[in-house]
UniProtKB/TrEMBL annotation:
Name of the featured protein: Riboflavin synthase subunit beta
Domain of life: Bacteria
Keyword Membrane: yes
Keywords: Membrane, Transmembrane, Transmembrane helix
Transmembrane segments: 68-93
Amino acid sequence: MGLLGKRKNKKFNYKPRYFEHDGDGSPFSIEHKFDKYRSTVGENQSLKGKFKTAWGELRETSDKNTRLRLLVLIGVLLFVFLLIIGFDLSIFYQ
């Protein structure tokens, strides 16, 4: 089984009897909400290929404001944690 590759999933072409739609594609097709925005979905790549494309997408769309917000949030949570456990903050003052 592992030597021959993965089996393809069966696709069923369901057409309801009394439903007429005026749009693209079938309203009954199952598709994830963010598939059209991801580059790792679609082609049947290896695991290494998926990681490479995901890493490239992350590097292209990195946002500096998000990083700054994350660092500030981690700092505030760390400060609150130190206050809760009773850490002596006077070592930072002279």
